[in-house]
Description:
The structure is a single chain. By secondary structure, this protein is an alpha+beta fold. It is built from 54 helices and 34 strands. A five-stranded antiparallel sheet has the order 9-8-7-6-10, with no helix packed on it. Strands 14-16-21-18-19 form a five-stranded antiparallel sheet, with no helix packed on it. The protein has a five-stranded mixed sheet with strand order 24-34-25-26-30. Helix 8 (about 255-280) crosses helix 30 (about 780-790). The chain is elongated and about 155 Å long. It starts with 11 loop residues before the first strand and ends with a strand.
Amino acid sequence: MVGELRYREFRVPLGPGLHAYPDELIRQRVGHDGHPEYQIRWLILRRGDEGEGGSSQVDCKAEHILLWMSNDEIYANCHKMLGEDGQVIGPSQEITGEAGALDKSVLGEMETDVKSLIQRALRQLEECVGTIPPAPLLHTVHVLSAYASIEPLTGVFKDPRVLDLLMHMLSSPDYQIRWSAGRMIQALASHDAALFAQATLSEHPMSFEGIQLPQVPGRLLFSLVKRYLHVTSLLDQLNDSAAEPGAQNNSGPEELSGERDRLELEFSMAMGTLISELVQAMRWDWALNRQRPLARSSCSIFQPQLAEAGPGLPPTRAQPSIRRSRRFRPRSEFASGNTYALYVRETLQAGMRVRMLDDYEEVSAGDEGEFRQSNNGVPPVQVLWESTGRTYWVHWHMLEILGFEEDIEDVVEANEYQGAVVSGALGVALPSWRWKPMTELYAVPYVLPEDEDAEESEHLTQAEWWELLYFIKKLDGPDHQEVLQILQENLDGEILDDEILAELAVPMELAQDLLLALPQRLDDSALRDLLNCRVYRKYGPEALAGHPAYPTLLEAQAQPQESAGAARVEGKEPPAQYPDTPLWRLLEDCGPPGRTFLDLERALSSEGPQETEIKPFLLQLQRQPQPFLILMQSLATPAANKPLHLTVLRILMQLVDFPEALLLPWHEAMDACMACLRSPDTDREVLQELIFFLHRLASVSRDYAVVLNQLGARDAISKALEKHLGKLELAQELRDMVFKCEKHAHLYRKLTTNILGGCIQMVLGQIEDHRRTHRPINIPFFDVFLRYLCQGSSVEVKEDKCWEKVEVSSNPHRASKLTDRNPKTYWESSGSAGSHYITLHMHQGILIRQLTLLVAGEDSSYMPARVVVFGGDSTNSLNTELNSVNVMPSASRVILLENLTRFWPIIQIRIKRCQQGGIDTRIRGLEVLGPKPTFWPVFREQLCRHTRLFYMVRAQAWSQDIAEDRRSLLHLSSRLNGALRQEQNFADRFLPDDEAAQALGKTCWEALVSPLVQNITSPDEDGISPLGWLLDQYLECREAAHNPQSRAAAFSSRVRRLTHLLVHVEPCEAPLPTAAAPRTKSRNRSHDWSSLATRGLPSSIVRNLTRCWQAVVEEQVNNFLTSHWRDDDFVPRYCEHFHNLQKSSSELFGPRAAFLLALQNGCAGGLLKLPFLKAAHVSEQFARHIDQRIQGSRIGGARGMEMLAQLQRCLETVLIFSGLEIATTFEHYYQHYMADRLLGVGSSWLEGAVLEQIGPCFPNRLPQQMLQSLSTSEELQRQFHVYQLQRLDQELLKLEDTEKKIQGGHETSDKKHKGEKAEEAEGAAVTNVVVEEEEEEENEDLYYEGAMPEVSVLVLSPRCWPIASICHTLNPRTCLPSYLRGTLNRYSNFYSKSQSYPALERGPKRRLQWTWLGRAELQFGDQTLHVSTVQMWLLLYLNDLQAVSVESLLALSGLSPDMLNQAITPLTSLRGPLDLREEKDVPGGVLKIRDASEEPRPRRGNVWLIPPQVYLKAEDEEGRNLEKRRNLLNCLIVRILKAHGDEGLHIDQLVCRVLDAWQKGPCPPRGLVSSLGRGSACNSTDVLSCILHLLGKGTVRRHDDQPQMLSYAVPMTVMEPHTESLNPGSSGPNPPLTFHTLQIRSRGVPYASCTGTQSFSTFR
């Protein structure tokens, strides 16, 4: 048999330690699309906790999932279920021989025998009298059980009469008959696992532990079993009708379709009936009638919810309901607070409800109260506040008027970002995606294809019509015909049969008429279902009128009695008067139902009550059982109510004798009887009457004996007997009767659990069919059932959500301190010792999980010492002690209650004693934790398991298609859109709250999208992923996609839709994925989900997509660089290419930072693949392009603006260099070109702007230091100007002193003669000094402002300026005129004096060395010539000469011929002032000033003659030196790390050791260092750049636990086996081949230069 085979190779992770495996093929059918489908049973296996290797896998056969799978899904996930021909091995191929063992004639005879046996058994059951069945009945049942074990006869047992027989057998008092019924069900389940997969008597895998299931009476329970088996039978017939057409089915396609439609309708109606009865049996309808369900916000279920949504992210959770006024205006509608205060003062009336808008002293915002009075005081308004329980005065503008109770309504708070609006009294949240900003149009892609704003259809959907049809079929006889008559009248008199009814298109107006006619014709049970169904809420009269569509059942059913009362008034019948008795006081608040019960009690008290009088009252109580339940629950009140207890027991004892009374919900109030039975204070007379009543009730109906057994009545009766010494009549008999029902109680619990579990599994199966077929779910009350299953999912019942209010024994105004979560505040009591208490009024149905009291030892005698907790149904019945706790003085948290199994409406905490005999107490806080156990955790687990398995199987099938044909990736967008749209619509239609919808959306996204993204982004054996291929195709056809009519446009649109869909959600973070391994192209490969399971679910979608996009960009950039790196227009083309990639990234993934970062990393990866010299060439080209654009921007106008735009685009591209090795060479070339710009044409604002944008691309920050040095030079120039003025002032002051001395001398001749001799001697002395000083330096002239040309000196440091060592040294004494030499001398003196300050003497003194670098402006006629310093010297030299030879200029200046020729060329051009004439005897020619008549040239204006920029080449000697330096550093890093072995070295220590080795030797040789030139300089940035390079190559690795630690890693593919080791004394492999471009023949390291740091100066 196929079912006996096990296939364990396919693991689908369903959760932590949980996997699913395909186990066997159950059955086969034809799907709605005409293709075969196969039902596969998947086993759920759990993995032990010992780890992957030592864990043992345990088969949980009870836990399995039945999943219908297509041929492709089996082919992708379960290929071992395929035959040799590749076809699925169907079950028919295995069981054909076994089925054929029975002859058709024999089989027919056996079917006839089974039918006759069924009829005989039904007749014998009806004729059975007494509790002992006759022997013929037992024989018949045994024979039927034997027939049920024959598989070919399974179809006969699907007859509805078999279900009736099974119900009679299960409800029989005889054990043998019940046992035979169980054997029949088990026999049928063994043959048809799909039909009876969750047989009611088999072990069901679903656990409802911790959930209190209600006590369902046997009559209701057996009815549920019958409904359940009938539904499973119809489901089996549906699957059989879809089986492959064979010999037994020769009908045509139309007949098969009609039969299937009939079965679907019948199945939907039966499923609706089952749900309706199950909801009533579980009493869910009574629980939820108290609270009206709110509309769930229509937001994406796949978007993760945020705690606080910002303007760009609308909230995904519906806003809570708040109370607002229908009549009065809120404060937001007024322009000012004063205007609003006047409005409130004029409008507010005494007794109106108000709400506080602001926090004010003891009153908080949101508190509600009742307005009492106002006066002229401050504050003027007195309000009785509910939060404090007393009045408090506030201001007018702080209040919001709610009005009287009839003016208040509950609405959903609107949110401006969510787009929620209030429609009538119901809060309807409009779809949030309709208000997305323009940049987020694709936030919810799966919704966009549908037009949500289109006008609604004028007809009901099929699901709505079938729900309405369900109630029509509930009608009997004339009522049914009347409704059909309404339908025929509105449908042109068409004859309506069942087939036509199912396919009707019903207009909305007709549906409204039907909904008006149905309530008067339905019974109470069906009316309750109608009021809760979706079609009534949508089209009912209350919904259309704008009123709530959820009237309580009491209101709906009180109308007939009120009308009867009105008729009695019209008949002038005096109203009944009731005496003031305990019973009347108990029921006086129940309204008309209470008066009905009082009338019933009066009828029972009369002599000889007639059944005809009692029956109407009992029927009324069946519809409104609240008075009956209140009556029974009064037995749990204190024992002091003995008269009431005796009266209640007398009434109950009389009611038991009426058959109609047995239909009342006795089981719902049995706990009150048990409370009275257990209470030690119960009076003996009351206890005796209670035992009489319970014995009578259990004797009449065994169901209630079972309920008593489940409530523990046996032990309670035994204790009562011990207390009263056995003197309780019928107590022993009652105990024996309860004990005999032990097996029945176990059976009832098992039936309830398995029926509920089976219904849940059936619901999950319908959801799966809905997913697979994309057909709507037409089952009535399907949303109702899901709403009850999801109950509790939207509210985390915690602390103040558990209780309605908190009351304290004293100081109620400080009661809020108990729940403010502030341990520094407290509630302090006031009263006598032992009288303090705290009372909690709990919300309905809340089971306390933990009740904790917060205290503080610092309170000393105020700290509680003994606390007792009581529970009760009201404040008057707090007589059940739940727990007592002694509090230690050192305690801070005192746990009072834990894991209660019963709901107590009132919980009271009594402080009996305080520490140290204290009187008053202090309580710091109170914590109450829920929630009550609900079905939501169980249903969520099952829903998520089925959803995960379904979509993971589908994801694998789609991935298989994509692996075989990458073009199928284009259809993935529509596939995903369809699946996600279906789940979104399902959640909007059926799931009641956001938490349930989010759980479904998260599971669907993780199971479907995450595996798909992982598969389509994983590279195959060629290293290309399917999505990478698709993105490559998108980039290639991007230009052709501009034509909207082209195929490329359609292709690009599909790619964009796919990427938008994949990136719009990222549910959660996942661990970093391991490197994707190449996949094989084999079709029949075994896919293992273990990798996905070990990393956790889901894998990061964005991480996989960014990694794929990065690989695509890297390949694109690498191909471009390889093809175009030598082109002249390389940089503009590369910028254009990068810009296109940026636009493509925005088109595909939107403005998401992760993909922009992936784009940058991809470009960086492409650059890193370049060899060093190519990378250096690329960096030089970028530096050259930036230089040209900066200089071109000086032109101005349109051309200048164009240059700026090109510069900006280039700078965006250059930012990629940051952090890469190429940044070092880029900085080298940029530094050279920037220096030429600054010295040739001067600085501008653009230089700083460029550096500010691409500053991270300069690891040594040399360009920034260059600009900083210019600023320093400007500051020195300003100081120099002040210095010259000071020197001038000093000289002038000396002259004035000399003149004063001369004028004050005597005019004698002798003195004159002596004075003249003295002056001559002084002049001779001065001359000698000048002569002597001229040998050292030229005399310093006085400074006269404006008398000489303006000279600016730039002091440049060789540490940041690229000053070549060839010496562009300028000798001012020989090359400059005297009026310029004087300024230079003064500046030298100034600079030397500025270096003599004590603060600057700590380091070596810097000295100036004048260079030829710089620029000048010369006046030549009407022209202003802009020239370099060399050109200025040459032109000034010609001022004194008519002509000069080039050879003499070379000898005079000491410049190189190239540098001099570079300066002469612009001067001898058409715009220049000189001519160069060749002469035979003069090498190089002769220069002379050009005559004005020789050639035309500009006569006026500015003329730029500065030599053009000379650009470097990366392939020259300097570029090769940079490569050598890089390789030398790499060798040093590898050698040092190899010496430290596996322990490695800290990165900071490594940098220091490399720099130390570079400075001190012994490697490399000095000859090599001299060949490196300036390339021999090394700093920490260069070392870090080489470390990054080695990390990228894999030669160096980081430690996993300590990333800052580096060690040597052996590269396996780049080793050269026969090269000589760099370090003969070291062991281990040689460095990679990339370092062998430099041959090292000897060892030694260049020593650092010991010369002082020199500074160079230039001038303008």
